[in-house]
Design brief:
single chain, alpha+beta, Beta-Lactamase, Phosphatase 2c, domain 1, 3 domains, five-stranded antiparallel sheet
């Protein structure tokens, strides 16, 4: 054995590398500080660019919500789901929308008869008010305080004249003839709350004869944008503000006023009480005049009171006449102060460190270069997929052990690659067993989702072709095999084959489950069993039928009433009791607005990082919150909610569910009997 191999690398390498790292760190520090001005300047620009990108994203979020809400509200008004002759009854819908979207401050509706309804949230407050102008209020708005559950006080707290048809938001929609953002305006609150700036997204609603029926309006206070800017970290003492195309302040991260509370006039940035805002706005105005453009990105230095400031501006534009500008101002000292001091302290030792580092680097390179190069080349070949070769490193005994460990690892990788290929093929086969499309049945919107915790799983859902179901009915099967992984997937695939082969000939859902139970009980081993739920949604007969084999009963939500309907009835799981009898249960009175959810227990038992389960109350809350949307929207809402709840926690069980929403059909009854 080479005598050098008897010396442990644990002795030689730490000593040499510790010295190398020490001197290299000092050397790199010297190089870094000699270029500090350029590097820190670049870092400062990158930092402010990220701040601007974040502000732009937040502004897009603020503006996207009213646009989305208006589209939804206009759609449900056009479909008759909100009765224009009974606007007072719209209060619960508007209240729930305002609670769901915290960035929105008001939702309003006004029509050509002078009727109006609104639900509003005061800036910086959590309480809500409800206002109504209809035939019973004598062209005056009655404004009520709302309790946390959305109920209003019996008597209005204020009454004042109000005609929506003469309001700026209503006229803006009428004049545009399409959805449009209003100009920024002053929102004067009651109850002694300071006035704030607001902006509204308005949409005119026309009837089939193209006559104007009314205007839908969703607003948000620019106060909330200012609060967001104040929470940003902009250097140590920097600030951010937003102006419109007329140079008027929209919001800022400071306490500088954007509105004169005496005259109710907006404040121009160049006349702001904040010196940094006023100076930077004037400097930027001069630059814009020289460039003959204000809607471009810009960054540069500004001198103020002997201090250098980094100034950055970027545009924010919405279709129409909305042209804002985001501006940040940060003292250069915020980035350079401490680094400049460290630069002077380390400059002397950097020269000596360079020479020492070079000498030690050569010594270490001579001792380690050859085996490390060979090791790197071998690792590269492994990375490209070449797992057949072996490596034999000489030198220190740790290199010999490393060679053996790498060769053993390569052998293990070969086996794991074969196993992963097998699992990938199994996953592909199992995924192909799930339905590729949903049934196209007028009046029924259907959306399903399945996510396995392993490559393969034991959850299953399907849409069946059952002889007893008419053309206006959908039959849904959902099941859960005990456990998960390959064994559960095999049981699930077997159950699917039995179910599909028998579904056309089965006389009823109960008979179909009874046949499956006999087959699974006969073939099941190792104590495996399966729960299953079969549901027939018959829209034409307005009937819901189900048969449960140890599975959770269907969940049924009435969107119109805003409440859940309890459904009960179930029998033993499949494969547990041979010759078990299964019963069929019914619910009559299925109407548009009903939402059906069938799911496996992985949905509500999904834990977060603290071990808390998602729970049925959160499942129902997600359905109720998104019930106004279609089946896909409800499904996506549940997925978003559970992903946010789980965070980084590992998924421990398969999650499968199907959403069915009953919707109106043209020419048929759409109101619950």
């Amino acid at each position: 054995m080479n005598p050098a191999s008897r010396v442990s690398i644990k002795v030689t390498l730490p000593v040499l590398m510790s010295l190398l790292v020490l001197v290299s760190f000092t050397m790199l520090g010297y190089i870094t500080y000699t270029r500090v001005e350029s590097a820190v300047g670049t870092l400062a620009v990158q930092n402010l660019t990220q701040v601007h990108e974040r502000i732009g994203e937040r502004l897009r979020d603020f503006f996207e919500v009213p646009e989305r809400m208006n589209r939804i509200n206009v759609q449900i008004i056009s479909q008759g789901m909100l009765d224009r002759s009974k606007v007072r009854a719209w209060r619960p819908a508007f209240y729930e929308q305002l609670r769901a979207f915290g960035s929105v401050s008001s939702i309003l509706w006004g029509d050509e008869a002078g009727h109006a309804i609104f639900v509003s949230r005061y800036p910086g407050r959590t309480e809500y008010v409800f206002g109504i102008v209809d035939a019973d209020t004598a062209r005056s708005v009655n404004e009520y305080n709302l309790a946390p559950d959305g109920t209003m006080e019996p008597q209005p707290w204020i009454v004042y004249p109000y005609d929506p048809r003469v309001r700026p938001w209503y006229r803006a929609a009428v004049e545009a003839g399409h959805s449009v953002w209003s100009d920024v305006y002053t929102w004067v609150a009651k109850k002694g709350i300071d006035p704030v700036l607001s902006i509204a997204y308005v949409t005119p609603v026309f009837g089939a004869d193209r006559n104007l029926q009314g205007v839908m309006d969703v607003e948000f206070n620019l106060y909330d944008i200012g609060q967001f800017l104040k929470r940003l970290s902009i250097g140590k003492s920097g600030l951010a503000y937003i102006i419109d195309n007329n140079g008027l302040l929209v919001a800022s991260s400071t306490d500088a006023a954007v509105l004169n509370n005496w005259t109710m006039e907006r404040v121009t940035a160049t006349a702001s009480g904040n010196v940094l805002i006023a100076t930077s706005a004037a400097e930027l105005a001069d630059l814009d005049a020289a460039r003959q453009s204000s809607m471009t990105n810009f960054h540069g230095m500004l001198s103020l009171g002997g201090r250098e400031m980094l100034l950055m501006a970027s545009p924010f534009v919405k279709p129409g006449n909305l042209q804002w500008r985001v501006i940040t101002v940060v003292p250069e000292d915020d980035f350079l102060g401490e680094i400049q001091e460290a630069k002077h302290q380390n400059a002397i030792g950097a020269g000596v460190a360079f020479a020492v580092a070079l000498t030690l680097g050569l010594a270490v390179a001579m001792a380690l270069a050859r085996p490390i190069v060979r090791l790197a080349e071998h690792a590269r070949r492994i990375g490209t997929g070449d797992l057949e070769g072996e490596i034999r490193l000489g030198g220190a005994r740790e290199f010999l052990r490393l060679s053996a460990a790498i060769n053993q690892m390569t052998e293990g990788l070969r086996d794991r690659m074969k196993l992963r290929q097998s699992l990938a093929m199994a996953m592909e086969v199992q995924q192909s067993l799930l339905p590729a499309s949903t049934p196209d049945i007028p009046g029924l919107e259907i959306a399903g989702h399945s996510l396995y915790c392993d490559e393969t799983g034991g959850d299953y859902y399907d849409y069946l072709d059952v002889s007893s179901a008419g053309p206006d009915a959908a039959v849904i099967a959902i099941g859960d095999v005990s456990g998960h992984g390959i064994a559960a997937a095999m049981v699930m695939a077997s159950a699917r084959g039995i179910l599909r082969s028998r579904s056309r000939d089965a006389g009823s859902l109960a008979a179909l489950l009874a046949h499956m139970n006999e087959q699974i009980a006969e073939d099941s081993s190792a104590g495996r069993f399966m729960t299953m739920l079969l549901v027939m949604v018959d829209r034409a007969r307005r009937v819901l039928r189900w048969t449960s084999a140890g599975h959770q009963e269907p969940f049924l939500y009435d969107e119109t009433a805003g409440q859940w309907i309890e459904l009960h009835g179930g029998d033993p799981p499949l494969g547990v009791i041979p010759h078990a009898e299964y019963r069929e249960h019914e619910f009559h009175g299925l109407y548009p607005g009903h939402v059906l959810l069938v799911a496996t227990d992985g949905l509500w038992e999904a834990p977060n990082a603290e071990g808390e389960s998602f729970g049925l109350h959160r499942v129902k809350g997600a359905v109720g919150e998104h019930a106004v949307l279609g089946a896909q929207g409800i499904r996506d809402g549940i997925i978003r909610r559970i992903q946010a709840f789980r965070g980084l926690a590992v998924q421990e069980d398969d999650i499968t569910f199907v959403v069915v929403k009953v919707t109106p059909v043209a020419g048929q009854e759409t109101i619950n009997a």
